[in-house]
Amino acid sequence: xxxxxxxxxxxxxxxxxxxxxxxxxxxxxxxxxxxxxxxxxxxxxxxxxxxxxxxxxxxxxxxxxxxxxxxxxxxxxxxxxxxxxxxxxxxxxxxxxxxxxxxxxxxxxxxxxxxxxxxxxxxxxxxxxxxxxxxxxxxxxxxxxxxxxxxxxxxxxxxxxxxxxxxxxxxxxxxxxxxxxxxxxxxxxx
Length: 190
Hints:
The chain is mainly alpha-helical. It has one domain: Orthogonal Bundle (Endonuclease III, domain 1). It has ten helices and two strands. A two-stranded parallel sheet has the order 1-2. Helix 2 (31-43) packs across helix 10.
């Protein structure tokens, strides 16, 4: 018998199924991984997540495996090289990752970690929403609005409330798995 998953999962795509089953919505507190996921979500603005997911390994190569200090020191030379790689060819989005890396270094100094900065917005534990059908799930919230406002005030790029809400879902700050999905009640999600 096949496991019941959220309706947005493309069952014909093994990588997408694995992402849903093993990553999406799992509370993420690792600094490097949060920076990577945040960066990839900004790349997905206006595009499908699957487009970005398929290029994730290329982004890891292009951005020094999302080492925050390394990325923050990238120059125009690195941007030019990245534009030749198999990533989304949007110079402004590529430059945004570098800009955001620099700003995350300030966040680390101020809060002690990126993790604390993000997770303080949800009181340190996931918000669990009742989602019967992903098509009716929220795409932003008062919290994503507040986090977006704070990020924009700090100078972060490619951060809108919908993008930030998607990031919050992906890193487990919000559990929006459908009620019928086998992942909804996994111990690490509550």
